[in-house]
Design brief:
By secondary structure, this protein is α+β, with helices and mostly antiparallel strands. The chain has three helices and 21 strands.
């Protein structure tokens, strides 16, 4: 997050940048800044309060959807897909009829070529989520054990028919977009993958990248940019040709992708991620895929990475005691005191929700009233003299 102020003409503007968004605030004429500061701050807090409310509603949609899926899709069998939360569309394989696919419906993966989930829309309350139970390379003698795919948001999965030796949806083309609402700290577009507890390592092929894992991972892939693989728990590694990267829990690697989602480079070295993926994991015994979340005290975090030429390995250390810290930058042209106050207020608001916003707004109003009364008293005293 960065905070700065700029003088354009004879007007002062505050610019607050956080989580990819810019807040521009005209605080009146520069010479009157001291008189307009509290009112300016009040307007800023009101806007932030609206943002906090939207984030709270977004998180609630995610939590409710995952809870419903844990109940609605619990009977999904091996090599089947369940419509977990509205809205999901399926495209049948060539020669197959159209498949009715309402919430709670289950279909065989053999009959489906493409699965598309829709991005989060707060106005309609929709957030497309589908649950698949994939055999992958698990043996036929263990039909109760499956790899769980949880497809969500602006995401499409297409069966890769160039790999005939794989079971249904073991080799896929994955594409994720950036449409829809973005929940702060919770991804809403992508593919969550879980392997059964105690099972052998599973091998998957996603956009030509081999993923070998026994645990939980989250995958995103944007055409012409990168494919990102994040390890949530367990053992996860990715391979492109002869280049392989192991990924520790709570770390991620990226693989550069062509516009056609073909790897055009080697996996990067792992870097730490502060995103919380645990909210996306369904509860219950869906496909016997429950994987324990990593213990916080044992979570390794990458604190330094090599340069772009990948000349050496990443440095890994245990940093559980420093989790949740935030780096704050301040523009050198702004007042340190004013910057510090607003930055602290921003951190408090973003971390404690609407109640804190209301309290701060009330305090700001009280200060405005006190300021007006004191100013009027001073003016009267000056007139009497």
């Amino acid at each position: 997050m960065t905070f700065s102020q700029t003088l354009y003409g004879n007007k002062l503007y505050f610019i607050l940048h956080s989580n990819g968004e810019y807040h521009f605030l005209n605080c009146g004429h520069y010479v009157k800044f001291k008189h307009a500061f509290l009112l300016c701050l009040l307007v800023l807090l009101s806007n932030l309060g609206h943002d906090v409310k939207a984030q709270s509603e977004c998180t609630a949609v995610v939590r409710d959807a995952i809870a419903i899926i844990g109940q609605t899709c619990i009977a999904t069998g091996r090599n089947q897909v369940c419509h977990g939360y509205f809205r999901v569309e399926v495209k049948p394989t060539i020669g197959q009829p159209m498949i009715p696919f309402a919430v709670g419906d289950v279909a065989d993966l053999d009959a489906i070529s493409t699965l598309h989930t829709y991005p989060m829309n707060m106005a309609s309350g929709e957030w497309g989520v589908a649950l698949m139970q994939v055999q992958a390379n698990l043996p036929d003698v263990l039909p109760g054990q499956n790899v769980t795919f949880l497809l969500m948001g602006d995401t499409s999965v297409t069966e890769s028919f160039d790999a005939p030796r794989f079971t249904p949806m073991q080799a896929i083309r994955l594409e994720t977009g950036v449409a829809g609402v973005s929940c702060e700290g919770v991804p809403t577009n992508g593919l969550l993958i879980q392997t059964p507890r105690g099972a052998q390592e599973v091998k998957l092929l996603v956009n030509g990248v081999e993923i070998t894992m026994a645990g939980t991972a989250f995958v995103e892939a944007v055409p012409g940019e990168d494919m990102t693989v994040t390890s949530i728990a367990g053992n996860v590694s990715v391979s492109v040709g002869e280049d392989t990267q192991m990924i520790a829990p709570q770390a991620q690697v990226t693989i550069p992708m062509s516009p056609d989602l073909v790897p055009v480079g080697s996996p990067s070295f792992p870097v730490a991620t502060g995103t919380d993926y645990t909210m996306l994991i369904p509860s219950g015994d869906i496909g016997t895929t429950a994987v324990q979340s990593p213990v916080e005290d044992s979570v390794p975090e990458v604190i330094s990475t090599p340069t772009n030429d990948q000349a050496g390995p990443a440095v890994v250390t245990n940093t559980a005691s420093t989790s949740g810290s935030e780096t704050v930058e301040s523009d050198s042209s702004s007042s340190p005191a004013a910057d510090g106050v607003l930055v602290v207020l921003w951190q408090i608001i973003s971390g404690n929700g609407p109640v804190v916003v209301i309290v701060i707004v009330i305090v700001a109003l009280i200060l405005i009233v006190i300021y007006a009364l004191v100013r009027r008293l001073v003016e009267r005293l000056q007139d009497s003299v």
